[in-house]
Amino acid sequence: MAKRKRIGLREVRALKCGETIWDESLPGFGARRQKSDAVSYVLFYRNARGRQRWHTIGRHGAPWTPDEARDEAKRLLGKVVDGADPVAEKISGRNAATVAELCDLYLSDAEAGRVLKRSGTPKKASTLAVDKGRIERHIKPLIGKVSVDSITRDDIERLLHDVAEGKSKARVKTKPRGVAVVRGGKTAASRTVGLLGAIFTYAVRRRMRVDNPVHGSQRFADARRERRLSDDEYKALGKAIEEASEKVSTRIRAKDTKKVVVKEFWPAAVSAASFLALTGWRRGEVLGLRWNEIDLARRTATLGYTKTGRSVRPLSNAACDVLQSITRSGDSALVFKAARGDGPMAGYRKIWMKITALGQLPSDVTPHTLRHSFASLAADLGYSEPTIAALVGHQGRSVTSRYVHAADAVLLAAADAVADRTAQLMRGVVTQLRQSTG
């Protein structure tokens, strides 16, 4: 029968191998020595269901002394009285999901369409690809092994600064000849924390946590890209697109004794560049545009799945001219089709860089620059924010706009005015007039 006495240092040191003593002042608290010289403090209790539980508090030595272990045993017994089960909590903590496992669950449900945005629609495949990159290159390397229930706001803010300072930077092999250069930075850090907020909201919904540790955490201001083209840059872009159009199929080389036409610039890619400049649409909207979304008779495009949901866009006469110059291959086919396959053009960024290089334009001139420039031109012409929003598909349009199926005369006139000004600038007409009158 196990001995009962108040456990102190003398009693602990006197324990023999395999011997256990129980504290006479606190039922259930004991100390035992197994086959080694180590002594462990233990607590024996019954949970709310009447099951016997054997909980190991810790080994004798710093920090556990007899008095420290007795105080911990009192604390645990108080939790048992309140209905808790320390052993079950310990097992649950040992088996708790890690942040990496949570991210995998989130991506799996998001890809299946079970994670919805605020608009009530699932995330696009392109958005999920970006999310996966941030998870694999920033979140998992830095906090992937930490359990979901132990993440705190301090951990989130530490991650923010680690990514900003480049602690997750790496060169990641993506394809046999492809490498992704992960640099980090403040923008990447803020957007990674934003994604974590969505992931932990998902964790709360799955009852993996009771709160979201991202809420209230600090993050860097998202850098706004407010770059717009100057008159000279518009003229350079116009010349570059014109030159690219002439280089579509001019070079010929021999291959296996057969003449093969080498297209320096894919025709659809050049047309897409013109369409981007004349509409101010997002790059993904242009590359994903299908013929069945276009009504040339009413000069209207109805995009069913954009960043802001369904969107009805007016088409200027200039934009319609670009569309009519393209051979239509089928109602459901892409307007700006890829050289191979039925999907959107892959690697359009490289094609765009080749076009801008022809015009010796700076590297910060991107398709998004055209979008901001288009909206800025509309503002220069005196159009209101709601009109500009309707032209380029900005968020914040009226409730009734979702029921509109065709652009009205006012919007069509606005689209024509901005597109015509854009075309003038790309031909250098406005610049020449200013120089002649200056």
Short description:
By secondary structure, the chain is α+β, with helices and mostly antiparallel strands.
Q: Helix and strand layout, with pairings?
A:
Elements: E1 3-4, H1 9-13, E2 20-22, E3 29-33, E4 39-46, E5 52-59, H2 66-81, H3 86-94, H4 99-111, H5 125-143, H6 153-164, E6 170-175, E7 178-182, H7 186-205, H8 231-246, E8 251-255, E9 258-262, H9 267-279, H10 283-287, E10 294-295, E11 300-306, E12 309-314, H11 317-324, H12 348-358, H13 367-380, H14 385-392, H15 409-427, H16 429-437
Parallel strand pairs: 1-2
Antiparallel strand pairs: 2-3, 3-4, 4-5, 6-7, 8-9, 10-11, 11-12
Helix pairs in contact: 4-5, 5-6, 5-7, 6-7, 8-9, 8-12, 8-15, 9-11, 9-13, 13-14
Textual characterization of the structure:
With 438 residues, the chain is of the alpha+beta class. The chain folds into three domains: 92 residues, Double Stranded RNA Binding Domain, CATH 3.30.160; 107 residues, DNA polymerase, domain 1, CATH 1.10.150; 207 residues, hpI Integrase, Chain A. It has 16 helices and twelve strands. The protein has a five-stranded mixed β-sheet with strand order 1-2-3-4-5. Strands 10-11-12 form a three-stranded antiparallel β-sheet. Helix 8 crosses helix 15 and helix 13 packs antiparallel against helix 14. The chain is elongated, with a radius of gyration of 33 Å. 29% of the residues are buried. The C terminus is likely disordered.
Number of domains: 3
Q: What is the CATH architecture assignment of the largest domain?
A: Orthogonal Bundle
Number of strands: 12
The top level CATH class name of the largest domain: Mainly Alpha
- Distance between the terminal alpha carbons, to the nearest Å? 108 Å
| Largest sheet entry | 5 strands, mixed
Order of secondary-structure elements: EHEEEEHHHHHEEHHEEHHEEEHHHHHH
Structural class by sheet pairing and helices: alpha+beta
What gyration radius follows from the Cα positions, in whole Å?
Answer: 33 Å
Shape field: elongated
Query: Fraction of residues in helices?
Result: 40-55%
Q: Low-confidence parts, pLDDT < 50 over ≥5 residues?
A: 250-255, 398-404, 430-438
- Beta percentage is 5-15%
Largest beta sheet: strand ordering: 1-2-3-4-5
Q: Could you please say which CATH topology of the largest domain applies here?
A: hpI Integrase, Chain A
The tally of helices reads: 16
Mean pLDDT: 86
